[in-house]
């Protein structure tokens, strides 16, 4: 296996690898059709790696290194040089082979070379992923919940098909016609007790870790 820097010619395989990996993960809704780019107004540098086996990209890793101003104002850790873990994905056919570990080993050495003080990692609940970050020495500093659903006190949505005008007519629970109604949404919840106030279709636990380099 070869670990090397990302090249622009890798973009198509990069997208495929991330899409396939995330499809079977809690990040199923994070799909990109192009390579993640780092905003130069926020990031001064980046580490962008790919893992290659027999000419095929099987793993990707991206870390953005904030500029001095963004680092000193970063909410989770204030320092002269702070980084954010943007992407880590391994092709499903090549998982559990140590590829993520190897990618991070190379990335960590580069972070040390670049004098980065801390790395922030945002993730969602996956026992294997959480265990991996803990093995790397990352500490949990924040947890929240992403609810797909609706508040229990929200009016239900009803709709009828208007054949003549070829459109849907929307009505709230009182039978009043509306131009728009919130059917369901994504709600960010910070307190677990608040979850009981929602009719939940899907619950995603989100975690923020901090790794001191």
TrEMBL record:
Domain (N-acetyltransferase) ranges: 1-164
GO MF, one annotated term: acyltransferase activity, transferring groups other than amino-acyl groups
Keywords linked to the UniProt accession: Transferase
Stored CDD domains: NAT_SF
Superkingdom as given in the UniProt entry: Bacteria
Protein name, entry field: GNAT family N-acetyltransferase
Organism of derivation: Floricoccus tropicus
